[in-house]
Amino acid sequence: MALKTLDSVIGLHVISQDAFDVGEIEDLRYDPVTWDIVGFKVKSNKIVASMLNAGSGKSMIMIKPDHYIVNDVILFQDAIEEARSRISADNNNIPSLSYISGRKIVTSDNILLGSVDEIQFDSDRWSVVSFKVKLDKAACPLLGLKKGLFSKMAYGLLVRNIVSVSENVNLRLTMEELKDELVFD
Fold first, then answer.
1. Among residues 45, 48, 56, 133, which one has the fewest Cβ atoms lying within 10 Å of its Cβ?
2. Given phi > 0 = left and psi -120 to 50 = alpha, else beta, which region is 110?
3. What's the structural domain count of the chain?
């Protein structure tokens, strides 16, 4: 498992094996039921957009996940022509992960846990794994933590514990159940 964060891939350039700069990642699109990443929202390069008939330069395209090398750039293991089947126009009907960043997280017993600080995904399987949570000060005593001057963080809020995402991220666990699920700093 190769864990990455959403923030670590936004802004990366996507490069084909034949050295074409396909564009820059703006966001990741995901399936809200399975939490699988279904595509990268990419601001396309003008030359590549015309090669792929994906509109004019700076058009938004979506690139389906595959076996890519992820470092300072995301590197296709094939040439741009061979990658054409994985590239399409971006679809705004598919939710973006950045929409979740900063959302309030509410437990099943209707207590505010905090807000989404970081989103982690597995870049081998291309699926969202967990969230890092900036805890609400009122939640700290309920979790057995002392309030401090600085915000407390919790790690390991698994997506399998999420019921829905709307204005808030709604959990299937109570605050008491979260004590055993999360790791605190």
1. 56
2. left
3. 2
User: What pTM value is reported for the model?
Assistant: 0.90
Residues 106 and 90 in one domain: no
CB 120 within 8 A of CB 101: no
Shared domain for 45 and 124, answered yes or no, is no
As given in the structure block, the two tokens for residue 163 are 């019921």
Domain that holds residue 112: 100-184
**pLDDT tens across 157-184, in order?**
999 999 999 999 999 999 999 998 999 8
Phi/psi for 106 (5° steps) reads -120, 135
Q: Please, where are the H alpha helices in 45-165?
A: 46-51, 80-83, 139-142
Integer Cα distance of 62 and 162 in angstroms: 26
Domain boundary among 46, 69, 97: 97
Task: Summarize pLDDT for 7-34 with one digit per residue, the tens.
Answer: 999 999 999 999 989 999 999 999 999 9
* Cα 18–chain centre separation: 28
Q: Which of 63, 97, 131 is the last residue of a domain?
A: 97
Classify residue 100 by its DSSP letter.
Answer: T
Q: What is the pLDDT of residues 52-79, one digit of tens each?
A: 766 555 578 899 999 898 889 999 888 8
